[in-house]
Specification:
Blueprint: H1 2-52, H2 67-97
């Protein structure tokens, strides 16, 4: 009888501890997700402002417009769009995973 009561008491304490641990874990994950979302939003804002202002993500010397630098400029623009698309895809996948 005493053994059964002790086992039930220990099981209940362990269950309470597990619930507390689960709650702490979920709160930490939520905080991390919110922080990651905030950082991603800031990065997207920076990227958007840079593209809107006609800026570049990676600097390219534009001393003379030769065919080679024109190709580099085209590649850089396509890289910027690829980066933007990858960021958007990543955002979509992280929001779907939740």
């Amino acid at each position: 009888m005493v053994e059964t009561e002790t086992r039930e008491e220990v099981a209940q304490e362990m269950e309470e501890r597990m619930h507390m641990m689960d709650k702490m874990y979920r709160e930490r994950i939520n905080r991390e997700n919110e922080e990651n979302d905030r950082k991603t939003d800031e990065k997207m804002d920076l990227l958007h402002r840079a593209l809107k202002a006609g800026g570049t993500i990676s600097p390219v010397k534009k001393s003379r417009k030769t065919e080679e630098t024109m190709v580099e400029d085209d590649v850089m623009v396509s890289d910027q769009w690829m980066l933007l698309l990858l960021l958007m895809r990543h955002l979509d996948s992280t929001k779907l995973a939740r």
